[in-house]
Specification:
Layout lengths: L2 H11 L4 H10 L6 H8 L12 H16 L15 H11 L4 H10 L6 H7 L13 H15 L10
Helix pairs in contact: 2-4, 4-5, 6-8
Length: about 160
């Protein structure tokens, strides 16, 4: 999934304005300006569109975890250099304190039925024999399910 889409979707789902976005980056120890964030949130056909790097999205997601769950002891936030859908999915799960039944309900509400075993395969290490790659469709359905919970009165988010 494109990092900019994830960033746009998170902003929409949780009704985050520019100031909140800047503050979330700050929670991860990263300085991001309003202009940078604005360029990341633009549509890809806009001339000012800038691709959001994995490190920038990781910083946002880590900051979102700190916002929702609090800072973990005295440890420093480490922003990953490479993200996959599986890592993004796991960070959202951590931030929102979602358990397997919650996630299965979210996905079911969006039209995807998975077993608990299929779901747990997304959160395994890539080297594990039962690891399963999380594809873009699963991520979109996760966001659709989250929208039904966090913004139920709004029309579905358009990916176009």
């Amino acid at each position: 999934m494109i990092n900019n889409d994830v960033l746009r979707r998170m902003r929409y789902l949780f009704d985050l304005d520019d100031t909140k976005m800047v503050n979330i980056y700050g929670l991860a120890g990263v300085t991001a300006s309003r202009a940078e964030i604005s360029d990341w949130l633009k549509r890809d056909d806009d001339p000012d569109y800038v691709e959001c790097s994995d490190t920038s999205l990781a910083a946002f997601l880590n900051g979102f975890i700190v916002l929702k769950r609090g800072k973990k002891d005295d440890s420093e936030v480490v922003n990953e250099a490479k993200l996959t859908n599986n890592i993004i999915f796991n960070k959202i799960k951590i931030a929102l304190t979602l358990k397997s039944p919650d996630i299965l309900d979210l996905l079911s509400a969006a039209g995807i039925e998975l077993s608990k075993h299929e779901l747990s395969a997304f959160f395994r290490k890539a080297e594990h024999k039962n690891y399963r790659h999380c594809n873009d469709q699963i991520m979109r359905k996760l966001f659709q399910g989250l929208q039904k919970i966090h913004r139920p009165s709004t029309k579905p988010f358009s990916w176009d």
